[in-house]
Design a protein that fits this description.
Number of strands: 0
CATH class of the largest domain: Mainly Alpha
CATH architecture of the largest domain: Orthogonal Bundle
Shape: globular
Order of helices and strands: HHHHHHHHHHHH
Largest sheet: none
């Protein structure tokens, strides 16, 4: 964590939003899309749709067209409208603060809830016994390559639980931001840049050290690869 903080001092959530509702919307749209694409879409979307009533006040086809370029737009439209309706029905139109409440919203699983809570309700995060760590594709890949877990990189809940054991609670938000930035800039899925990696001497998947990539060949349960040494 110390090395990654030095390497990526500006690491933060890449999605653009100005309040909790926009954060939920942007995170739902980010599934199977890039943050850059979502930010292009939400730049106009948030001018047109300012709250949950707006997402319910247009025909589905119109909303689908407005978010089409993010992919899976029909499913995302249903999620956005369902989430908006739940907010109006159960929460007075406001995004709730606790994990237990957030995951009741259509389209919101733990990853999205963790992102919303950590970035919009930090005080609630510190007190919430159900709070955790957001695990996306980058976080999963880096955690597997570092042998913090010996499961498939897509098993987000198992990875989240393990990281919560390893990382101090004060760094739960930061580990997500750092792993995502590291995954984007250096620890690429197909061509990791191990020669430029700030944590390469600590990595049991270092191609620079001639080790096998645990992301591509998952270690057997219980088998811990020794750390690379230089």
């Amino acid at each position: 964590m110390r090395r990654l903080k030095r390497a990526y001092p500006e690491a933060q959530v890449a999605l653009h939003f100005s309040n909790a509702f926009e954060c939920v919307v942007a995170t739902i749209l980010s599934a199977q899309s890039t943050d850059a694409r979502v930010n292009l879409v939400t730049k106009e979307l948030f001018r047109k749709y300012r709250g949950p009533r707006d997402f319910l006040g247009v025909p589905e086809e119109e909303l689908q067209k407005d978010i089409q370029s993010t992919g899976f737009f029909r499913q995302k439209t249903r999620a956005l409208r369902g989430m908006s309706q739940r907010l109006l029905d159960d929460y007075g139109g406001r995004v709730p603060q606790t994990m237990a409440e957030l995951i009741t919203l259509p389209g919101v699983a733990r990853k999205t809830a963790n992102i919303v809570q950590a970035n919009c309700y930090p005080e609630a995060t510190r007190k919430d016994p159900d709070a955790g760590i957001a695990v996306d594709t980058h976080v999963g890949r880096v955690a597997v390559r570092l042998a913090f877990v010996d499961v498939n990189s897509k098993e987000a809940e198992k990875i989240e639980r393990r990281l919560m054991e390893l990382v101090p609670r004060k760094d739960w938000r930061k580990v997500t931001e750092l792993f995502i930035e590291h995954g984007r800039q250096t620890c690429d899925a197909k061509k990791p840049r191990c020669g430029d990696c700030p944590i390469e001497p600590l990595c049991p998947s270092s191609q620079e050290a001639g080790l096998g990539d645990l992301y591509r060949v998952t270690a057997k349960p219980g088998a811990r690869r020794p750390l690379a040494k230089k």
